[in-house]
Each structure stands twice: as C-alpha cells, then as structure tokens.
Amino acid sequence: MSDLAKLIQQEIATSGPITFAWFMEQALYHPQWGYYTSPGTKIGRTGDFYTAPTVNPLFGTMLARWLYQMWDAADRPAQWVVAEYGPGTGILARDIVAALRRNHPDLYATLNYYLIEISDTLKELQQQTLTTGEPGADHKFHWVNRLAEISPGYITNGCILANELVDAFPVHLVRQSGGELQEMYVSLSNKEGDSVFTFVPGPLSTPELAEYFNSQNVQLEEGQRAEVNLQAREWLAEVTAHLQRGYLLTIDYGATSEELYAPFRHDGTLRCFHKHHLVDNPLTNLGGQDITAHVNFSTLITWGEQLELRKKELVSQPQFLINLGILDILKEQPDYTQDPEFAKITSAIKQLVLPGGMGGIFKVLVQEKAVSQGN
Ligand SMILES: C[S@@+](CC[C@H](N)C(=O)[O-])C[C@H]1O[C@@H](n2cnc3c(N)ncnc32)[C@H](O)[C@@H]1O
C-alpha cells in the first residue's frame, strides 16, 4: 500500500469517513505524494492526458491574439499584467509570450507574465521550459503563490488565464436518494482480508451543497450522482479581490447546470486518466492517476456576477478560436503544399476545433471587471 493510501486510511480510522473533496485534494495535491506534486510526466504524449497547449503552439498564438484584443479594448494601458493559473508544463506561457513578441511588440513591451502554480514539481518544470525557451524573454516570467503577491493591493490592469484549472479542483460528490440529497464519503471496507477504500453515503458536510442546487434550480433524479465544485467560488473570489480592472479567461470542458445535471448524466462526470486511458475508479492508484470533473459554467457566471465579474461571453472552444481567425492561419502558410509544417498545423486545428477532438466539450468563458470604467 502506498504512503498516501496509508495516510488517508489513518485519517479515516481516526476521524471517520472523509469527504471525497478532501480525498481528491490529497490524491492530487498532497505536498509529497499527490498526483500533480510528485515527480513524473503528467501532461502530453508521454504523460496521462493531452491539453490544448501540448497539441501545438498555435493555441498559444491564438490566446496571444485574444490578449492583444483585450488590451486594445481596455485602451492599451501602459502596464498590463497577465497571470496564468495552473500553468502545468509552462508551454502555454512560452507560446503566448513568443507570439506576443513576434506579432504584437507593443503589448510585449508592457507585459509582465505571472505563473501561479500549486505544485513545486510543476513549478520547476515551468522554470525549465521558460528559461530554455525564447532567448531574452526570461525576464517577462515571474512565479507567485497567489495573485495577492503580484502587486500590493491590486493588479491595476490585466488578464487572468486558466486553461484546464477548474476541472482539477477537488469536488464534493452527492447523490439523490430517498428524495434527499446525500453526500458520498470515502470510508474503508474489508476485501479478502485487505482494507480498501469505498464510498458510503451520509448527510451533507456543508449546507452550501443544498444551496448550490437550489440556486441553480436543479433537482437531481432519484439515484443520480453529481459533483459540486465549491473551490471554484473561492478561486473567483480571489481573482476579483485582486484584479482591479481586466478580464478572466476560463477554458475547460464542461457545461451549463442544465446540461451538466441532466438525467442522462446519471453517474456524473468524475473521470480519471492514466497513460491516456480512462479509469473508472477514483479510489485506486492514489497519486498515480489524474482525477477530474466537468466544470459548471453556470455557477462560474452566477458567482462571478455576485463578485463584480460580468460575463462577456461563453462560447465553444471552436467558436472562440474561429472568431480569433484560427482557420485563416491555413491561408497564411507560404506554400502549403510544400511546407512540412502544414500537416502538423492542419492536424492541430482539427484536434482543437472538430467535435471528435477537443472541440466537442471545451468551452471558453470570458468575464470582465470594470473595463468600461476607464483607465
Ligand atoms: C489539468 S492541469 C492543466 C495544466 C495546463 N494549464 C495545461 O493546460 O496544460 C491543472 C494545473 O492546475 C494546477 N493547479 C491546481 N490547483 C491549483 C491552484 N489552486 N492554484 C494554482 N495551480 C493549481 C495543477 O498543479 C496543474 O498545473
């Protein structure tokens, strides 16, 4: 049994069943043995899953174009901060800054790019990616543990980015049973003489869970399971507390409340990934597999509005990228029949835009704060 499994077993033995949110937090972010905090490749071909930045630098080029449009829409402030939460490999930061330097030198000149990463192991990987990347761009990158560290008080003007961050936040698991909402806890059971983790139902650990469904006007069907991401609200509160004026860009797989909790999703959306395979048991291979759940964009919007973040747009990833001109990139190839890069680019565009790839379930939410109120 792994050290992490032993630690969790001990916690259950001492305090009783634990919420799945606590279990998931340990499994992903335990400082020593968590999935994201322990050594090893997680993201990309030799890891467990792909993310858009690992598909092709084109994704970063498109986000650089979006950042430029937002900077322009905000009247080109002299200081423009970009802060990326959960930068993973650091590849997106590298590609965005390289594209800004190449295509938008005026924004590049004003830019400071901050990376906010919970995992020290990934922070080291990001430092490697970004110091061996674009020569001369190193001074643009800064690591902080939280937004508050960027500048005392507020980020006066800027954009906050989060690509596949929110799906990696620990979630509570609930189930509708006997006409009531129950929470699913993690406990221990005996299987052929061994202690194994198992789910047990219990009362809600916090009234926020019932309030969550009431506020979204959602009634689960009898027997239906679902996930609730309460950490997303804390994260939005942190963003809005430290961003005085600017935009928040959230890209992730997910849906609105109505789609997310529809009866056809009887078992919820919790999924695990290991070596590019879907694993259906989150209670095994602790710290060795990714655990993730779809993002509820409706709550990001309503919570955001309560926190002065106004929804600017919610669109599918394909629509977002097409609006930014991703398809025009194909026409820009100098001689696309001869260019060996062309095949890579068309394949990347297919993966980012078509329904069979990331185009199907990925959405983009843009929220803004105080942008129309002048510099
Ligand atoms: C699914 S990965 C996505 C990585 C990267 N954005 C990408 O698209 O390749 C989630 C990332 O978020 C980080 N993360 C999770 N919770 C975080 C938090 N509260 N603050 C900062 N980073 C966090 C993880 O360590 C990891 O780098």
Protein architecture, described:
This is SAM-dependent methyltransferase. Keywords: Methyltransferase, Transferase. One of its GO terms (biological process) is methylation. InterPro entries: NDUFAF7, NDUFAF7_sf, SAM-dependent_MTases_sf. The chain is α/β, with parallel strands linked by helices. It has one domain (18-170, 227-265, 295-369): Rossmann fold (3-Layer(aba) Sandwich), CATH 3.40.50.12710. It has helices at residues 3-15, 20-29, 52-55, 58-73, 91-103, 105-110, 120-131, 208-215, 231-242, 257-260, 297-306, 317-323, 328-332, 340-353, 355-359, and strands spanning 18-19, 80-85, 111-116, 141-144, 158-163, 172-177, 180-191, 194-202, 225-228, 246-255, 271-274, 277-279, 290-292, 295-296, 310-316, 362-369. The strands form three sheets. Strands 2, 3, 4, 5, 10, 14, 15 and 16 form an eight-stranded mixed β-sheet that branches. A hairpin with a 2-residue loop joins strand 6 and strand 7 (180-191). S-adenosylmethionine is lined by residues 36, 43, 51, 53-54, 85-89, 116-119, 122, 163-165, 168.
